[in-house]
Amino acid sequence: MDLATLMYVSYRAMDERVLTAMRAAGYDITAAQSRIAQRIDDEGSRLTDLAERAQVTKQTASQLVVALERQGLVERVPDPADGRARLIRFTERGRAAAQEAMQVVIGVEQEWAEHLGPRMTAQLRAALARLREVTDPYA
Amino acid sequence: MDLATLMYVSYRAMDERVLTAMRAAGYDITAAQSRIAQRIDDEGSRLTDLAERAQVTKQTASQLVVALERQGLVERVPDPADGRARLIRFTERGRAAAQEAMQVVIGVEQEWAEHLGPRMTAQLRAALARLREVTDPYA
DNA sequence: TATAATGGTCAGGGATACTGACCATATTGG
DNA sequence: CCAATATGGTCAGTATCCCTGACCATTATA
Fold this sequence. Notes:
CATH architecture of chain A: Orthogonal Bundle
Strand content of chain A: 5-15%
Radius of gyration of chain A: 17 Å
Largest sheet of chain A: 3 strands, antiparallel
Oligomer: homodimer
Order of helices and strands of chain A: HHEHHEEHH
């Protein structure tokens, strides 16, 4: 099995775990919404930036933000620095959700670390970080 | 950045490379179609098995197979062992496409290996394979 | 100040993937 | 041996994702 497929398998497993946990916690969120939400800065982010970071068009990003907004997880406020722009930022509820999701990620990573052992875990992280240098267009 | 997201970044880069190359070679294939096609055995596979391996419903798998069939990449033949089932297998053109895709994957992996060096590449593969033991429901 | 660039939205469409209902063939328990 | 159940697939309908193209408002630039 090639490296990319191996990565996909585990990525997908994580995704599944996080979404299941979030649904159990009462958040009706999807994978794509989560990928956008993960990229919102604490001070708020512009749609264009979110789109670029998530590697989707701004139209797609906009749609996902609308969905997050409908669930009361984010809000859009005017950007004081630019009359055209609006800042997307977490609501209280959104921040709580983000933290909850992060807890799940940390938990799953701990499970993984237990299975791999500390040495292999460190090697995995180092290799992936290094690989990112040539695979992440927005690094 | 968490491990799963790091994996997603590189997985996605590979995906992009393969699809771009395939389109350049005249195959009008999508990522989802490719994920199904990758799982077709040389002797042919049943829809249900493909669906399970790709972790989608059989309805979704069926739809993707139809798309591959329309492009002349796969064909469906009755399964001699079971009157209900049909075997999905590559056509000549499909086999050629699969090989072409494999070449691209190998090429990209070589690029990655050059960036990481042989030691880190081996560590990455070993760690991912090990991780798969706890993340792949159909391993 | 006219032109171009940037931040976003609206409209429309194709692909992906799901649930639910259903049919045909195989398998199994009585 | 046959009724009940399981399995392999299809059909229909729908939500989400993500795209292209067209467009508007504001900002930056020549």
